[in-house]
Amino acid sequence: MKFFIDTANLDDIAEAQALGVLDGVTTNPSLMAKEGITGEENIINHYKKICDLVEGDVSAEVISTDFDGMVKEGEALAALNPQIVVKLPMIADGVKACKYFSSKGIKTNVTLVFSVGQALLAAKAGATYVSPFLGRLDDISTDGLHLIEEIRHVYDNYGFETQILSASVRNTMHVINCAKIGSDVMTGPLSSITGLLKHPLTDSGLAKFLADYEKGNN
Ligand code: G3P
Q1: From atom 7 of ligand 1, which residue's Cα is the shortest distance away?
Q2: Global pTM exceeds 0.90
Q3: What distance in angstroms lies between residue 215's CA and the mean position of ligand 1's atoms?
Q4: Ligand 1 probe mutation, 87, 168, 170, most atoms within 8 A of CB
Q5: Ligand 1: which residue has its CA nearest to atom 5?
Q6: How confident is the model at residue 218 (pLDDT cuts 50, 70, 90)?
Q7: What digits encode the pLDDT tens for the residues 64-88?
Q8: Ligand 1 lining (C-beta closer than 6 Å)
């Protein structure tokens, strides 16, 4: 499973990259705003900085909600760097724009997906990635992982190449469960990746090894 980091924070991206396990980055307008990145020029410059930090795909979301606007914005974003994936909302014009970009060989990520039907539409429109929002479904007492399982089943039935990018991942158990059910990618905060490192038996075992080494060498 590919690991993407879901942030616009350059320090967090650099830390995940340095760990050697990062495959890409996803952003959205809320994450940009959280970092204080506002205005078209600053946002474009920020995407360039993110692309310089990582080697993999970087999802950049359009703000337009009409087909023409999405195409204009998406083409400008895609021209920044081959790493850029045009992120489009799951609305009718987003599906049309997805079809347009996929026919031109431009990578897409269809976001704000909350049902199997939406995921099916994204795949038929040739999306590179589909982003079901796991955490936000869990927030409303709906089983987000079950949705991802169902999308996996439907995609496998027909051999769709669209990659399931489990988004709105919040914690390490989300990451582990996404891996168990065959999600192609997960995107979450830095803590959902670094949290996987932690185990008390690793810490106590290492402390014992080092203590025994010291004893044997002194
Ligand atoms: O990738 C989508 C993600 O940014 C949404 O996450 O935690 O705001 O639901 P969250």
Answers
A1: 168
A2: yes
A3: 49
A4: 168
A5: 168
A6: confident
A7: 999 999 999 999 999 999 999 999 9
A8: 6, 26, 28, 31, 131, 133, 135-136, 167-168, 170, 187
Catalytically annotated residues:
87
SS3 per-residue string spanning the chain = CEEEEECCCHHHHHHHHHHCCCCEEECCHHHHHHCCCCCHHHHHHHHHHHHHHCCCEEEEECCCCCHHHHHHHHHHHHCCCCCEEEEEECCHHHHHHHHHHHHCCCCEEEEEECCHHHHHHHHHCCCCEEEEEHHHHHHCCCCHHHHHHHHHHHHHHHCCCCEEEEECCCCHHHHHHHHHCCCCEEEECHHHHHHHHCCHHHHHHHHHHHHHHHHHCC
Residue 16, both tokens: 């995940």
Average of pLDDT values for 166-181?
A: 98
- Give the Å distance between the CA of 69 and the centre of ligand 1: 24
